[in-house]
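Lecture notes, part 5. Sequence design as translation. It can be helpful to think of inverse folding as translation between two languages: the language of shapes and the language of residues. The source text, in structure tokens, appears below.
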């Protein structure tokens, strides 16, 4: 059992503005723990989390990998999330490097085919498109869930870039729910980028059925 990162340093103010780890986060941790031996065996050099929020997921993978030279990059559009991620890293003795930006935009050219682990628990809740637009512009807590059509408007933008970032042996983990149309995502990623997909964890949370998808190159 790898312990859940200690988040006791986060304040009520932080929780008002930054996504508080919930069922989806914990399912994500379970899936990563399940893959712990494989992940360690790959000796990853760069781990990139998109939308790191509190920093819980990156701190967790840091404790799975133990003391290594891995670079932990974490992006979020919400400035306060970057601050929480930094403090969570420090509090748990994992060197997390947060960057406040949209998805992986400033890293795309510099990290081509070099990221060994990519993690994304995106805003996946289906909403009106106007809602996702204002949530993305507002860069606050509603950016944590507002996902627009099929809950996929933010995720789809990232899916277009993920293959260019993944290293040869890279793995990309994505949180989804039924409403996101998982079969369509799998088929599209295979057809467009030759990325194969496995569902590595699944759990019902209230009315939602959550999954963790893991993508890797076909010709590994
Ligand atoms: C569901 S929360 C997940 C937070 C954390 N990773 C977890 O699992 O608890 C989604 C996160 O994505 C961030 N986010 C939303 N749109 C983003 C974008 N365009 N670029 C980067 N981060 C984004 C939100 O601010 C939020 O922190």
């Amino acid at each position: 059992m790898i312990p859940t990162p200690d988040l006791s340093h986060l304040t009520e103010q932080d929780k008002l503005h930054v996504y508080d780890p919930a069922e989806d986060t914990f399912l994500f941790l379970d899936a990563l723990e399940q893959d712990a031996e494989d992940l360690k065996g790959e000796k990853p050099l760069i781990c990139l989390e998109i939308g790191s929020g509190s920093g819980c997921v990156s701190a967790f993978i840091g404790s799975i990998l133990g003391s290594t030279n891995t670079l932990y990059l974490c992006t979020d559009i919400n400035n306060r999330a970057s601050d929480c991620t930094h403090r969570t890293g420090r509090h748990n003795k994992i060197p997390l490097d947060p960057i406040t930006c949209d998805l992986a935009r400033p890293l795309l050219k510099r990290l081509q085919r070099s990221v060994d682990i990519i993690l994304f628990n995106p805003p996946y809740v289906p909403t009106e498109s106007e809602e996702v637009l204002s949530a993305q512009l507002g860069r606050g807590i509603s950016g944590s869930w507002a996902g627009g059509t099929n809950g996929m408007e933010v995720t789809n933008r990232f899916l277009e870039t993920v293959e260019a970032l993944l290293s040869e042996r890279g793995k990309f983990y994505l949180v989804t729910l039924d409403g996101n149309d998982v079969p369509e995502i799998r088929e599209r990623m295979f057809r467009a980028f030759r990325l194969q997909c496995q569902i590595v964890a699944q759990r019902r949370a209230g009315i939602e059925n959550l999954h963790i998808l893991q993508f890797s190159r076909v010709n590994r």
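The translated text above is only one of many valid answers, since several sequences can fold into similar shapes. The chain has a mean pLDDT of 97.
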